[in-house]
Amino acid sequence: MARGQLRIYLGAAPGVGKTYAMLEEAHRRAARGTDVAVGLVETHGRRHTAAILGDLPAIPRRTIRYRDSDFTEMDVDAVLARRPEVAVVDELAHTNVPGSRNGKRWQDIQELLDAGIDVLTTVNIQHLESLNDVVAQITGVTQQETVPDGVVRGAEQVELVDMTPEALRRRMAHGNIYHPDKVDAALANYFRIGNLTALRELALLWLADSVEDQLDRYRADQGIAATWETRERVVVGLTGGPEGDTLIRRAARIAARGRGAELMAIHVARSDGLRGADPGTLERQRLLVERLGGSYHQAIGADIPTALLDFARGVNATQIVLGASRRGRFAQILSRGVGATTTALSGPIDVHLVTHERVGRGRLATPPAALSRRRRLVGLGLAVVGIPLLTYLLWLLADDLSLSSDLLLFLAAVIGIALVGGWWPALLAALLSSLLINFFFTPPLHRFTIAETENLLALVVFLLVAAAVSGVVDLAARRTREAARASAEAQLLGAVAGSVVRGARPVTALLERLRETYGLGSVTLLERSPDAPESPDRQRDPRAWRVAANVGEEPCGTPSAGDAEVGVDGDLRLVLRGRLLPAADRRIVEAFAAQAAVALRQERLAEEAAAARPIAEADRLRTALLAAVSHDLRTPLASAKAAVTSLRSADVEFDAGDREELLATAEESLDLLTRLVANLLDMSRLQAGALGLRPALLGLEDVVPSALDELGEPARRVRVSLPAHLPAVRSDPGLLERVLVNLVANALRFSPADRPPAITASEHGGFVELRVVDQGPGLPREQWERAFLPFQRQGDRGNHAGIGLGLALSRGLAEAMGGSLEPEETPGGGLTMVLRLPVADEEGTG
């Protein structure tokens, strides 16, 4: 049986028309004679959606009983039994009610697809699992219902239903999305222009990536290696030399000329891991690429042109930017070089060879000596002393040994000297050996002439073999030293990265690691002062610099005050004091410097984010407060004004009962308004730290009845159970009563009529724990902390539910009195609020 096909209508936000577009497609298929059935469609009260749903045949839903309430979900068994050609199933990311066949609706849809049924469905971009944290950061709302990206990417068709933010807000204002009483709050919060623009961009980018993945899969399945220029991609090859900055900027200009072009930089390291590029230079160039909007990559390959082209073809690149060869003319005759080879093999990919100041000047630096100075001196001494000594011994044994034996012994000596001192001592030993062999062991003796051609050939071969073996031994020693150094540098850089990740202050951790590694007295990161006066010698002018970070001894005030200086960029200098560093160590120090610059910027961004967080929170509270005031405060004001206006009206005669009812309405509305305003004032005092406390010795048996009396008639059904010998607490009477009023009012709001809330208390660990228990719908554990945020309300309760300050204010007041307020699950369902207050000590009772 062939698997069904999935078509998804993707939107950036609710209300863009996904369900409408899906139903239009269902009608088109039904008009063509396709058997279409509606498994589940949610109209959310939108008249246009309900109208287009029309007469499409719908499969009855399944009713599920959960927590004494009835819910309806798609009946998967009924759809499978009906077996339409196309099933219309709305809201792909929906979470099914417990007791359903599957936990998620996308799992239901997978069953339909497995049964060979095509499915039309919808999803919003904020429900994709990979974007959940991004959407929460943008909108401030964490989506609880998500769907794996793989489910959406696996669809045969994903169609974007797009709408500009302005058009969507107009649709919202006309009441085409939400009920009119929710429009103002929605426009002021989730449906702000900035939020909608960001969500729209996320949807477009995600869909573009999805299309690109499909194209890559198609090219891979079809074995297509040729570049398809669907989008300009510029790859710049970096060697780690200083010309890389020029190449990056040239490639960035090329990419900027192609609208939407991507910039990618790649460094190909040799597979043997030796003769690596300067890590400090590469790190700075990586930062430059990222500042210009590109991405940095690394690859390993024995053949650099092949590895470079493999990467370029893998990313579907259209252009490659390389630097002209640094090698001299003679070296270019022997080998074409990376640029010429890449150009010859590139095929349809354009290759740009960019000139720079290092063209034709050879390699950037000579390789370091393979062996230490001490070993080279020892090898030189062995050559000068050991070869004559060996000659004397062999001269004593001249009657017992032939010339070939002498040559082998001298060759062994040369190899030994090469192992100890390297190339130059071994070469000296080989030349000295050839002269001594000629003088003492080759006829005619004691003359620098050779009579027989065979002896001349043997001596020449000896010299060549000795030189070759010495070169191989020296090269092996050099490679061993380079490998050891590369391993040590890799371990050091890995430790640096670890210290940055683990450290609370990454800049300080980096500088301390550098100081410890090289035994320095102090390491200072200097930053150019932006408001410093012009100076002819900024390197020595302390007014031109300020200390950004320092470890060790007294910091260096200027770059010239240290023993070594490494430039990070135009504004940062890393100054070392304690000892001079060799050139070989400077590469690692430059990598440290580049990482320190990144860490410094990260620290400052974190500080700016921390400073902006209270401002953003205040703005969020202000926006929520305006929305709350426009809705929740307006309702009691309107009721009170209507009652008073009616009483003052001369056109209508009211009897005593009507007047009493109107007065009661006005009084109730004004009491509600008073409580709302009081909560707002207390919350503002809490946030400003200006809440006045008047602690006193209290018994809960006195405070609880007062709180229930304030709530009036509804509180009479609250069950109260307080132990007779409960210890007293020391709290502010008015604030404690306010906390209890808010907690009990919240419990009454969500408790079923046949199961009223209860109040219990107990003593534990020096605290009195008072529990306000309700058996309502409860709250998922992951939403407990969110319930304590201001202006949050559980469920859609209408405007009479208050502005959502009760729990937030109650927790703040409890903590101000030295206590705490935490939620816990009610056995059998519901939510219990636990108010913990410290027991009054003996001194407090006085």
Structure commentary:
The chain has 846 residues and is α/β, with parallel strands linked by helices. The chain has four domains: 6-221, Rossmann fold; 233-354, HUPs (Rossmann fold, 3-Layer(aba) Sandwich), CATH 3.40.50.620; 373-478, no CATH class; 694-845, Histidine kinase-like ATPase, C-terminal domain (Heat Shock Protein 90), CATH 3.30.565.10. Helices cover 50% and strands 16% of the residues. The chain contains 25 helices and 23 strands. The protein has a five-stranded parallel beta sheet, with helices on both faces. Strands 10-9-8-11-12 form a five-stranded parallel beta sheet, sandwiched between helices. Strand 9 (262-270), helix 11 and strand 10 (295-301) form a beta-alpha-beta unit. Helix 1 packs parallel to helix 2. The longest helix has 66 residues, at 583-648. The protein is elongated, with a radius of gyration of 41 Å. It starts with 5 loop residues before the first strand and ends with a helix.
